[in-house]
Amino acid sequence: MAVREALLGILTLGPAYGLQLHAELGARAPHRARTNVGQVYGTLDRLSTAGLVAHQGLTGDGLPLYALTDSGIAEATSWLDGSSLTALPEWVDVQDVVLISSSVSGLHATSLLSKLDVLLEQNDMSTSQTTTQSPAQHLNEQANQRYREAVSSWLADVQAAVIQPQPGYAIGRPKRGRPAKS
Q1: What is the pTM assigned to this prediction?
Q2: Cα 22 from chain centroid (whole Å)
């Protein structure tokens, strides 16, 4: 995962233009706040080529709007609700899907958290109990266990938080141009 699925998830809110999607990505997934605007536009081009998004008119000042196609809706939904997950993702991917899903749909987020809990349980049960491990294998297994514990703890924090999905895009229009140097 990366920006691709996050943009699809955000586009479930409706058509948007590239800079708007960039701002929404940074707001909804703060760990992605430094995503390059060019990466967003490149990803939108690839999503368009793949038939997952399509141009849907222009804003009042001529910016192209992107919207999900039927295939894009299906892919976004399966990512947002976790049904496309077959294994516990890496940390940044867990953050992406949980933060984006919980910001756009409470129903998808609930399904996602349940799916992640199942994956954590499966991962715990499949932990190797081999007695003849090299030191590196043992340390790797310990690292994986600590990771599962960290994800489990964070998911408990997420479930305890009262998450209110933001039903639409931010009201303010993102500024265009280069940010001021500080």
Answers
A1: 0.83
A2: 13
